[in-house]
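Thread: "does anyone have the structure for this chain?"

Original post by V.I.:
We have the sequence but no experimental structure in hand. Need at least a predicted one for the grant figures.
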Amino acid sequence: MKGSLDDLQPAFRARVEKMIAHVQSLGDTVTIVWGYRSTAEQTILWNNRASNPNPVARPGFSPHEAGLAVDLHFDGSVSRSAVGHAAIDFGLRWGGGFQHPDPPHFEWPGFIHGQPAAGQKAAEEG
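Reply from O.Q.:
Generated one for you, tokens below.
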């Protein structure tokens, strides 16, 4: 759901909330741009990917569709590098480190790219 963490998988959402709270404690303002995304919403982004500065997964293969990704905006008080390190510290994968960087993107580290999003789950290690 755009601008919300509501439909994210619970284990992933808990990590995102902790990371956001940490970054806010450092003085940055965090805006949730997009959490869960339906296949219809992903299709619209895919069809308009030429005008998107960030990479767009094809419909059916985005971690957003599994509730395992979120796009966030930070006001810039904390460096992107520090935010990326915080994400890693809280057990997330940061899109800024991808081969095709996607700095606003954070996802569950166990999401398997190239496989359908349906059925992928956030399972706690342990």
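V.I.: this helps a lot. The longest strand covers residues 69-74.
O.Q.: and The chain has one domain: 10-107.
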